[in-house]
Amino acid sequence: MNRSGLPAPVRDLAEWGSAVRSTLRPGDLRRVMGVVGLVALWLVFQAANGNYLSARNLSNIAVDMVGTGMIALGLVVVLLLGEIDLSVGSVAGLATVVFAVLNVRAGMPEWLAVVLAVACGTAIGAVQGFLFARLGVPAYVVTLAGLVGWAGLMRYLLGSTGTVNFDDDGLVASLTGHYFGADAAAYGLAAVCVVAFLLVSRRTAQRRQEAGLPSVPLGRVLLETAVLAVLAFAAAAVLNLFQGLPLALLIFLAAIAALDHVLRRMPFGRKAFALGTGVEAARRAGVDVTAVRISVFAVAGTMAAVGGLFLASPTASTIQSSGSPMLLLNALTAAVLGGGSLFGGHGRAWSVLLGVLVIQSIASGVALVGVQPSVQLLISAGVLLAAVIADSGMRRARQARGLV
Q1: Is the pLDDT confidence value at 128 over 90?
Q2: Nearest to 61 by CA among 337, 314, 351, 335
Q3: 3-class DSSP assignment, residue 142
Q4: Which is nearest to 310 in space by CA: 118, 160, 146?
Q5: Do residues 74 and 87 lie in contact, with contact meaning Cβ atoms separated by under 8 Å?
Q6: How far is CA 123 from the centre of its chain?
Q7: Could you tell me the pLDDT band of residue 228, with boundaries at 50, 70 and 90?
Q8: How far is the C-alpha of 102 from the C-alpha of 374, rounded, in Å?
Q9: Domain boundaries, the chain
Q10: CA distances from 96 to 73, 79, 129, 191, 205 (A)
Q11: Which band of pLDDT confidence, cut at 50, 70 and 90, is reported for residue 398?
Q12: Is 164 left (phi over 0), alpha (psi -120 to 50) or beta?
């Protein structure tokens, strides 16, 4: 429709909207939609239960999302290849059982049992990656078999007890039970995040300018930094109203930053993005396709094991949800909602923070409101479907512009 025939206010609003969209980078629209959806969720659940936006509940959400978020970080790396790992839930459960059996039944020191449990997840991911990369078995078939097989091994190791309890004052239990009570801890982390974002953004813009590539204007960088500062210090203030900065959140943010650096700055990340864009082109460019694929699934297995330990931490016992569809569904939804693409070649580690925050906000809300778990499954499935539909729509838009 010709905009010249529109009333002046409507025409001005349409032109303003077009100008805003033209400044959005790839993936920004999905993140904006995620933020809008998150705010809407918070308002709805707050209306249903006045305690939803309390400092206690928001702090609990920040802690409870870490286990699923760690698993989602591993899935983002797999999604870069355009593949999927269906076994992460079972790997997470098996890792907690390996830790508990070694620590409780075999008497191994807790720190060593943690290392071996995480190494178990790495080995499982590498084996599954080898079957996919070297033998050519489709990834979804390998990991589907892993979903069933590793869950079976978990139940075998547990035996008739069905669970193993470990020290509720030990290392793993402290992952979600320890808080830094001093106000300076939360505010200091917020300040570090804001300064780091500003420095990294400016450095990236300068490098692109030096290379003759389009770069983000300084005004946008300053605006994004200001928005981040408001959000970060507001979050710090809320955390300090309860018990302070959770150790789990600190570790999660550090893991996101580390993975983001690997994916954006290191050769491994560039190779993973290249494979997601085109396998044959990457092979001709000298990328060792087999090694990268095995490494990617090893990373997914490692993060699944770490996530499993965080999920087991609050109850100080092996997790029982690995065989249910909820854990895999939530982790996959967080990865896709956070910007990962099922078609490969797209994904950012930091976007997982938004995705898992949405998922955990839903879980917390339905628990407070008293909604049945089956309804939570329906809601999570609907969110995943909406994220995939949005991903498909963006891919078609990129194809129409000749960007794919």
Answers
A1: yes
A2: 314
A3: helix
A4: 118
A5: no
A6: 21
A7: very high
A8: 35
A9: 27-181+243-400
A10: 18, 25, 21, 34, 43
A11: low
A12: beta
Backbone phi, then psi, for 328, in 5-degree steps? -65, -45
Given the DSSP bridges, would you call strands 179-180 and 245-246 parallel, antiparallel or unpaired? antiparallel
Q: Are 342 and 391 in contact (CB under 8 A)?
A: yes
Rg (CA), the chain: 22
What are the two backbone dihedrals, phi and then psi, of residue 177, each rounded to the nearest 5 degrees?
Answer: -100, -10
* Type of residue found at 332: L
CA distance 103 to 96: 10
Buried b (16+ CB within 10 A) or exposed e, 106-127: eebebeebbebbbebbbebbbb
Find, among 325, 358, 364, the residue nearest to 90 by Cα. 325
Could you tell me which residues come within 8 angstroms of residue 46 by beta carbon, excluding any fewer than 6 positions away? 52, 53
Domain 27-181+243-400, classified CATH 1.10.3470, yes or no = yes
| Encoded amino acid at 33, one letter | M
Q: Check pLDDT > 50 for residue 347.
A: yes
Q: For residues 319 and 148, is the Cβ–Cβ distance under 8 A?
A: no
CB 53 within 8 Å of CB 234: no
Round to whole Å and give the CA distance between 80 and 141.
18
Higher pLDDT, 99 or 273: 99
Check residue 26 and give its pLDDT.
47
Q: How far apart are CA 399 and CA 39, in angstroms?
A: 31
CA distance 166 to 318: 8
- First and final CA of the chain: distance in angstroms? 28
Kindly state the average pLDDT of the residues 270-286. 88
Q: Confirm if 93 and 357 have CB atoms less than 8 A apart.
A: no
